[in-house]
Specification:
This protein is an alpha/beta fold and 383 residues long. The protein folds into two domains: 222 residues, Rossmann fold; 150 residues, no CATH class. The chain has twelve helices and 14 strands. The strands form four sheets. The protein has a six-stranded mixed sheet, sandwiched between helices. A hairpin with a 2-residue loop joins strand 12 and strand 13. Helix 4 runs parallel beside helix 5, helix 8 crosses helix 9 and helix 8 packs across helix 11. It is elongated.
């Protein structure tokens, strides 16, 4: 896929990491050229970046020397942290300013990851350590499989040199001040720039987050992960006529087993988001009862027969009784209440109940029904 390549930096007083990263990406096979870039920084960091990369034409020289596509560097490229009054912050000094920075970084990543045609390239190399942490954490919360996280490493002698921004094509000498005030001349041909891909856990396609600030989003994400981990499997054994949630056996009549199984099949066999590995807050599998009657009556009939030793007579009995009966909807609603009551009576953990009962959702003007449990937790069998 041809992505819109978006570079994101956290930067302080070392604008070198921006050109070093752009250079390193351009040397990859295949190369990566930025379509847009965002620099999250303070007012002090912005002035330093403008004075060096723009006024001294460092970025322009890099583009010209390596024949790179033009890089759009505008006012909108700077994301400046501001306090509660809207005043730009010159440095991140206290807990409140760190919290503001975290919210700013998270909101940017959250916004940019909405566009599936954009690939993010995030660099942790600049800014204060907390800024790097927030950027990495935000990418974990919202990152997609194609987003990237980097750390740029430079040969130590060049790493702190104020005059080194990228490795030029032609060797040149630059002065480096060593500890003790000693000055040493360095050949740029000896410089190496390494861009390290950092692995990270991507939750963007696996959990659905709606919180506002970084702290709320982390707490919400943790709750979703905890619930995903602790959700027991729900298993239907059509031979034994049992519904098992974890190690709890729930005994309900055959008609109710058929109905509960139909809603589970609606989730796993007719998933409308097959690319999603986890259901999270997705309820696209919730359908009106008319849909259940039109599309599931044959499967429900077969499941009913399975409960009676694979009896064709019982399967036909169910099909003949309900395929054209207008009382089908009422029968389903009546038994849904009984199924949910049985589940409530057997599951003591109230936090788990919403994942296993048959739930109602108002969507597109219809009343729709489904089960929230993750599709990967569902097991239906006849043995």
């Amino acid at each position: 896929m041809n992505y819109k390549e978006t570079l994101i930096f956290v930067a302080g007083t070392t604008p070198q990491i921006i050109t070093e990263t752009i250079y390193a990406l351009s040397q990859r096979v295949p190369p990566v050229y930025p379509d847009e870039l965002f620099i999250i920084t303070t007012s002090t960091g912005r002035k330093r970046i403008e004075d060096t990369l723009l006024k001294q034409c460092v970025l322009k020289n890099l583009v010209r020397e390596y024949s790179l596509p033009d890089i759009s560097f505008t006012e909108d490229s700077f994301i400046i942290v501001r306090d509660e009054t809207g005043r730009e912050i010159g440095d991140i000094k206290d807990e409140s300013e760190n919290e503001i920075m975290g919210d700013l970084i998270t909101s940017l990543i959250q916004r940019l990851t909405v566009d599936k045609g954009t690939r993010l390239h995030c660099s942790l190399a600049g800014g204060r350590k907390t800024m790097s942490f927030y950027l990495g954490a935000a990418l974990q919360l919202f990152g997609r499989p194609w987003d990237k996280l980097y750390h740029v490493l430079v040969t130590p002698e060049f790493e702190t040199n104020q005059d080194f921004f990228y490795k030029p094509k032609k060797n040149r000498l630059i002065e480096c001040r060593l500890p003790g005030g000693v000055t040493k001349r360095l050949n740029t041909k000896d410089a190496e720039i390494y861009l390290t891909d950092l692995p990270f856990i991507r939750l963007g396609n696996r959990i659905s987050l709606h919180g506002k600030g970084f702290t709320d989003l982390v707490a919400e994400g943790q709750r979703e992960i905890d619930m995903a981990v602790i959700q027991p499997d729900v298993r239907v054994n059509l031979t034994r006529g049992e519904v098992n949630i974890g190690n709890i056996v729930i005994r309900i009549p055959p008609v109710q087993i058929v109905i509960y199984t139909a809603f589970l099949r609606q989730k796993v066999d007719n998933c409308e988001q097959p690319d999603r590995q986890y259901c999270a807050e997705c309820t696209d599998c919730y359908k009106p009862l008319l849909h259940l009657k039109r599309h599931s009556i044959k499967t429900m009939s077969a499941d009913y027969g399975s409960l009676y030793g694979n009896s064709m007579a019982k399967a036909c009995e169910w099909h003949d009784k309900w395929s054209g009966d207008p009382a089908f909807d009422g029968m389903i609603r009546q038994n849904m209440s009984k199924i949910n009551k049985a589940i409530r009576n057997n599951i003591g953990d109230s936090a788990l109940l919403p994942y296993y009962i048959i739930a109602v959702s108002k969507k597109y003007g219809d009343t729709r029904y489904g089960i929230r449990v993750d599709k990967g937790k569902v097991r239906i069998g006849r043995t």
